[in-house]
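Incident review: delayed structure delivery

Summary: a single-chain prediction request sat in the queue longer than the usual turnaround. Root cause was a stuck worker, restarted by the on-call engineer. No data loss occurred. The affected request and its eventual output are reproduced below so the record is complete for anyone auditing the incident later.

Affected input:
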Amino acid sequence: MLEIGTKAPAFTLPDKDGNMVSLTDFIGKKVVLYFYPKDNTPGCTKQACAFAGAYEGFRSKDIAVIGISKDSTASHQRFAEKYDLPFILLSDPDRQAIEGFDVWKEKKLYGKVSMGVVRTTYVIDEEGTILWAKEKVKPDTNAAEILSWLEDSK
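Output delivered after worker restart:
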């Protein structure tokens, strides 16, 4: 996980519609950037739906919400449509941002070791500096936790 106070790594990735999106597109506004393992899995669906439910709170503060996984743009499109997700989903099959933000790690599941995305969320300020970072976030409370932190940090 990257440290608070460091510059967020630049990236350019396709969204669910194939449009290229760069982190630099958001200079001048805060960004909530969350990394998740896979579309349509129970935890990832809970997390995405929690962000969708809290989206108006982020939008009212002029904060962009971006989810990133290794899934394809087509998978993201189906995922966004199925759950009516109003925020940006970016496809990172080559792990450009995933590795840049240090969320590609060794994971253990039922004793089996593999490499994968560790569920991690960053808040990035208007100049591209990391303000808040947390790995192994809880899918169902992650969005509310960030909104609460943003309120407290005013």
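Verification: Residues 40 and 79 are 6 Å apart (CA to CA).
Action items: add queue-age alerting; document worker restart procedure.
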